[in-house]
Amino acid sequence: MFFTLENLIYATLSIIFAPGFLLYLLVILMAAFGKSSGITKLYTKIMILIFEWGKHRIEIHNKALENNNKSSNNDQGNDDQVCDDENQDVAPAYRHPKIEFRRSIEDLHGAFTLADIMYFCRSGIKVIVDDEVTQRFDAAELPSWNLLTRTNNHYEFISWRLSILWGLGCILRLGILFPFRLILALISLTCFFVGTALIGRIQDEKSRRKYYCWLSLAIFRMMSRSFSSVITYHNRENRAKGGGICVANHTSPIDIIILGCDNCYAMVGQIQGGLFGSVQNAMSKAEHQVWFQRTEMKDRLSVTKRLKDHVEDKSLLPILIFPEGTCINNTSIMMFKKGSFEVGGTIYPVAIKYDSRFADPFWNSSKETLTRHLLNILTSWALVADVWYLPPQTQQPGETAIEFTNRVKSLIAKQGGLVDLDWDGQLKREKPKPALMKKKQEEYSRRLLNME
To answer: Phospholipid/glycerol acyltransferase domain location, by residue (predicted)?
Structure first.
């Protein structure tokens, strides 16, 4: 029996695609049931060793450059010394007196003097040079290069071994991992849209919620596998329970996937467009979610009422809220909105900390779309994160909502190793409010008048 060309093509395609199909099927099934082969953890451990080796090579290169510069400066200094000796009789050296400013804010007593403004000038220059607010809206600075092109805009040749390693890394990430991850992500999204549409047709609310929880856990775990995620959950006994409110620091919409791999939540958040908006609509078909426009007062009042009703019904899913209201670059935590802390009930704080050596998890929505952000992560090494579930918190007698909010925020910042800032994260999109500017002006005037 002779094989035709058509049969030969079918046989070749079967040999090529059959292993791939089985691999995807295995990954999907293991993700759906929360199992792991341990390959990704081993892969990240190997990458850490490579990063450390690359860091060592870069340090050696920088030290060599520094020694060369010192040698050049010493030679130049010797030449300058000869010139100074020759010209010593011509013009005597004149040394400018060193001006030192030793006054502090405690010294601003009595009548105003011109020197009193020096403290404020210095403070203003310090803010311009090292702004602790706007730098939180850019990607965090890496301690060393992680062999990604996007984190090394100014290319500098260091060694052939490091360059070859970088080239092999590009082939691995873009030629092997990215296609596999992209297909897995598309499969996950397709299953998500189809699954939520089918579950939304179930009339019985209890059954619908049960199937939605199973689908949510399975899909989010599949999506996390498409990022080669390695997530370590700490103190899982403190996970949010029905009727509770889970609050966490916010770095990216991927935070939802990270937390959704370990628990099922109802979501509260800003209405979005594009891909994110489609996901929001799909989630709303299967389970009650709360999406709102922050600029609409009636939407904000509706959210508050929904939260109050929610905390009274323990049969409902815990609600997931990001009180910062915007994404921060995972180096700090900014002002929490107090709305979710005013409704009573139990607050379940969660701290999320990413390892930025493997990928930049921060989504700067003012510079890139969500699709672009996801592609950056899909083409990175992996997504490594630690999640800490903190003990449940309730408002103490005599404690105001603002004090309760700040206390929970401080707990999250301390556990996650984040800088605790009191600034509003909406400064990323809006100019400072006149009330904030007036407050700073009053503070400065009190200092000048010694009213503190």
So the answer is: 244-355
| Measured distance between the N- and C-terminal CA atoms of the chain, rounded to whole angstroms | 100
Task: Give the Cα separation of 56 and 158 in Å (integer).
Answer: 11
Helix (H) or strand (E) holding 413: helix 401-416
Is the separation of the CB atoms in 415 and 390 below 8 Å?
yes
**Kind and range of the H or E element at 416?**
helix 401-416
* CATH number assigned to the domain covering 160-421: 3.40.1130
* Amino acid (1-letter code) at residue 426: Q
Structure tokens at 21: 């199909």
Amino acid at position 429, single letter:
R
Question: Amino acid identity, residue 240?
Answer: A
Give the per-residue pLDDT at 451. Answer: 45
Residue 437 token pair? 């500017």
CA distance 292 to 297: 10
- The answer to whether the Cα torsion of 19, 22, 24, 27 is positive or negative is negative
Cα–Cα–Cα angle for 78, 81, 84, rounded to 5 degrees:
155
Q: How many CB atoms lie within 10 A of CB 314?
A: 12
Q: Which tokens go with 205?
A: 């609310």
- Residue-wise pLDDT for 131-186, tens only, equals 666 666 666 667 667 777 655 555 556 677 878 888 888 899 999 999 999 999 99
Q: Domain limits of the chain?
A: 160-421
pTM to 2 decimals?
0.78
290 pLDDT band, cuts 50/70/90, is confident
Scanning the structure block, which residue is given the tokens 């994260």? 425
Residues 384, 170: Cα–Cα separation, whole Å: 19
Q: Where are the alpha helices (DSSP H) in 33-92?
A: 39-86
- The amino acid that residue 84 corresponds to is D
How far, in Å, CA of 104 to CA of 379, rounded? Answer: 50
Instruction: Please give the structure tokens belonging to residue 353.
Output: 């900390």
- Give the pair of three-digit tokens for residue 2: 């002779």
Say how far apart CA 430 and CA 58 lie, in whole Å. 40
Exposure string of 59-89, with b = 16+ CB inside 10 Å and e = fewer, is eeeeeeeeeeeeeeeeeeeeeeeeeeeeeee
* CA–CA dist 385, 307 (Å, integer): 29
For helices 160-170 and 39-86, the axis angle rounded to 10 degrees is 140
**Vertex 321 angle, CA 298 and 407, to 5°:** 105
Q: What is the DSSP letter of 38?
A: S
